[in-house]
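hey can u check if this looks right to u? its 342 residues, i copy pasted from the old doc so theres a chance i mangled smth
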Amino acid sequence: MNATSWTVSPAPFLRTRPTVTRMSVTVLLTLAPQVILLALGGYVTAVLNVLAALAGSVLAETVRGSRGRAALADGTVLVSGILIGLLLPENYNPALTVLIAFGATLFARTVFGGTGAYWINPVAVAVSVAWISRPDAFPAPLVTPESIQNLGDAFGAYKLDTFKPLGSDSSITASLNGFFSWFSSIRLPEGYVTLFLDSPSPVPAFRFNLLILASSVILIALDATDWIVPASFLASYALALRLFTLAFPWLGGSPKGDILFGLLTGGMLFVAFYLLPDYSTSPRTAWGKALMGTASGLTAFGLCGPGGSQVGAVFTVLAANTYSAVIEYLENRISLAAGGRS
């Protein structure tokens, strides 16, 4: 008679992740500076949208009864609400934001499961519904392959349109280039400092890239988010952008994609650290996370191209959630096969 063979390792017990509540608090603390900067910058409608999305999400969980109260207690619904508000264009109607946050949160968490159980990200669902409801509120991509071909690079094409650098951009760029000159030949063109500090994006979540990078260090250090998914996602997107922006090399194209422009103008950093690594929608194994991140990065290039898309990164999250479901199936199959029978 065959008996199931179990192998117990002490490894899982050597390190534990923080509680859901603690992770939510950490995420909220890293998002708070972005909301504060929006308020200090006079972006009133953007702040109203954050509050409206927060209200809609909280109301949705309240309607769900005991399950919803659990999400309120652990703070996950507060995180979802703020993320939804930050990912909507600043000119989006706050009244419509309440309805969308309420409906999408209620639908996603009821149909696909509550905290820790849903396989599709409620934030991505809400923003996708917002885009379907009012696509005109989401600006067109900042650049096109044609404009890049004509100008030679994405940032050059962008600067010809509506880009306005910060007043301190030139002096900061000069200081950085002076520092780089001590050990390399790297030269940072003027304008990128603005993209790092306060990118002129109509989507608030895409504005403060340097703050997002600083927040990512805190999130990863405190185990509030995973590092494998963001790293593989950003690496694969950057590589595809660099090699294939101006057609495939084997078809006569050249590797001239502007990686910094792509990462700093399409919300890639925000999505990489705040949406993709969601523990409810991420694979469990290291190889599964790397596979999902890589596939998501390639998908992001397909949807966003050279950068500047104001909604493509969010749709990438929906695609990533489907990849994760398939990868989880493979993880289970491999785990069962590795367990074996005696």
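DSSP finds 16 helices and no strands in the chain.
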